[in-house]
Amino acid sequence: MRILAFSDLHRSASATRKVVEASSEADVLVAAGDFAIRGEGESDTIALLKRCGKPVVLVHGNHDRPEELERLCTGWEGGHYLHGGAVILEGVTFTGLGGEIPHRNDAEWNVSESEERAAALLEQAGPATVLVTHAPPFGSADLQKDGSRHGSSAIADFIRTRQPELCLCGHIHHSWGETDQIGRTRVQNLGPTVNWFDIK
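Request: output the structure for the sequence above.
Response:
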């Protein structure tokens, strides 16, 4: 399976069009959240992504409204919105978890989960071949400009225990493009660019 993955499009039509243009070579697209900006504009980005005609696995980011993404995926045959859930495509299990984890931003539009709630949602979702999260795991691809780490301990614990093949994430802009390894799991902070992964 060839996966095209990205995150944090933040309503950028040009970045989204580049993804759609590249999608002809993909079996599945993975979108690790933040289609909107401060709770506005998910529909603009999703409308462009729907043109790819390929299955799209997505989670919400902290800028997105989960209920709006769920609505936009209703009736979209290829759209698979995951939050504490999983979908199997061509024998590959994709498990998803959205939002900022843990809560750090008190802005009204910010969507987050506590570490405890995140751990429960991941446990509910079960094993994964590909773990798709908006937040990175704590200590991996989560370095902020000031040197602090802003990843999730619950996601890191899940990876150490379940060892998915991939963890595809975003959220921390300073760490876009960063990769790490936790056991057998490759962690990649994606950013709003075309990233390729092969699952055998």
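The two ends are 6 Å apart (CA to CA).
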